[in-house]
Structure formats: C-alpha cells, structure tokens
Design brief:
By secondary structure, the chain is mainly alpha-helical. The protein has a single domain, classed as Orthogonal Bundle (Transferase(Phosphotransferase), domain 1), CATH 1.10.510.10. 36% of the residues lie in helices and 6% in strands. A two-stranded antiparallel sheet has the order 1-2. Strands 3-4 form a two-stranded antiparallel sheet. A hairpin with a 5-residue loop joins strand 3 and strand 4. The protein starts with 10 loop residues before the first strand and ends in a 6-residue tail after the last helix.
Length: 236
C-alpha cells in the first residue's frame, strides 16, 4: 500500500520470549497532529485536514475498500515535510476479527468514543466508509479548535448520550478559554484554535448527520475542501 498520505508499514516484530507482536513503521519526529499544531500554530490547517481526507480517499478506493475505523488526531502523524500521514487504519476491525468482540465493546472505551459516529455506539454497529467521514469531521474540528470533540464533557457516557440525541459539538470561538466541568481533559482548558469559516463548519455539520446516508462521501468532501482552498488565502 503506497500513498504519500499513509504511514508506511514495514512489518510485524516480536521480542524474544515475549508473547506480544508490534507493528513496525517509520519514526515520525514531528509526532502526531495535535502536538505538532501546538508547536506550530501557524500551520495551514485547511491543507492539513485536506491531506487527511486524501488519505481516507486512498483507503476507501481500495478493492475491497478499507475503513480506517479509528480516525482521530492522535492517529494522524506528521511527516518530515509537514504533511499528514494516516496511521493505525483498520486495526480496530482487525482486533474485532481476531477477538470476536464487537467494535463498540473492544475499542469504544479506549478513547475514540468522542470521534465515533452514532451508529457505532449501538449494539451491532458496523464501521463503514460513512462512519469514517463522520470521524474525519470530528478530527478536523479537533485540529481547528486545539481541543478534543465535546471537550467540556468529562464522562464518556455523557458524550455517548449527547451523540445519541443527535447533538453535535459546540462551534468553537477562538480566543476563549474554557475548562470542562469536573476537571480538564486532553485538549480542554487551552485557548481555542483558529476561526472555522462558515462554509467549513457547514461541511462538518453535514458530515455529522445522524443517518450515514445523509453524509457526503470522502470524495464529495474533498471537492468542497478544494473549492474552499481556491477562495481562501493561504496561511504562510
């Protein structure tokens, strides 16, 4: 699998005498996207989320299509040239296949519930290309706001309830500093990132449609993002 937007996979390794296996990929000195943006706040974020969408398009265009399944900021690494690289794609599904434990049970408690589409919080929920689109928009929100989705809500169950009710994240306003009630979370309590243009926010909202069929495809998403870049001054 070769794409400039996908982290290369070299193979699997194990330690002598151990029972665990480890995936081997190139080391990314810049770390993941959220950490990179904290150190480099003037990065062109529209370009970054477009590159993430390019990575998803590559996965979705395979035969058969590959669902990332666990897209969030920490699974987007930054290459030496500052470009986005998708990592950990398909691992949630592989874990489900190996353990026979449904996705919502095996991975929902590991922190990705804030990025998960509503259908994945239900019994028997299936990861699809459209659930990836939902997670892409949550990841894009995270990278624009410098906060995890639903950052003011601390308890996982409360986040799941909000999603089940069809409530989308609050639109961030740059310059405000907020703490979550009951304590801080990774990405919470810091100054919010940069302004989200109306056209981009409207795209996010469509990607968060409760019904998967109402969400755009990743190709449709890319087309809109490219149109925005044509009419948006680039951040140098």
């Amino acid at each position: 699998m070769k794409s400039r937007y996908i982290l290369r996979f070299y193979g699997v390794a194990s330690i002598a005498g151990g029972s665990s296996f480890y995936l081997v990929s190139p080391w990314c000195e810049n770390g993941d996207a959220p950490k990179y943006l904290k150190k480099n706040p003037n990065v062109d974020r529209l370009k970054l989320i477009l590159e993430i969408a390019f990575g998803l398009r590559y996965l979705h265009s395979q035969n058969p299509p590959i669902v990332h399944g666990s897209l969030q900021g920490s699974n987007v690494l930054i290459g030496d040239g500052g470009g986005a690289l998708l990592a950990d794609f398909g691992l949630a599904k592989a874990l489900e296949d190996l353990t026979a434990v449904p996705f919502t049970q095996s991975t929902g408690s590991n922190g990705c519930y804030r990025w998960m589409a509503p259908e994945l919080h239900e019994d028997g929920g299936q990861m699809t290309l459209k659930s990836d689109v939902y997670s892409w928009a949550m990841t894009a929100l995270e990278l624009y706001s410098d906060k995890v989705p639903y950052s003011r809500i601390k308890m996982p169950g409360s986040v799941v309830m909000e999603v089940a009710k069809g409530k989308i994240p609050e639109r961030p306003r740059p310059g405000a500093s907020r703490m979550s009630s009951g304590g801080s979370l990774p990405g919470a309590g810091s100054r919010e990132g940069i302004e989200i243009p109306d056209s981009l926010w409207e795209l996010f909202v469509r990607c968060w449609a409760k019904e998967p069929a109402d969400r755009p495809t990743i190709q449709e998403t890319i087309q809109e993002l490219e149109d925005m870049r044509r009419y948006t001054p680039m951040v140098m």
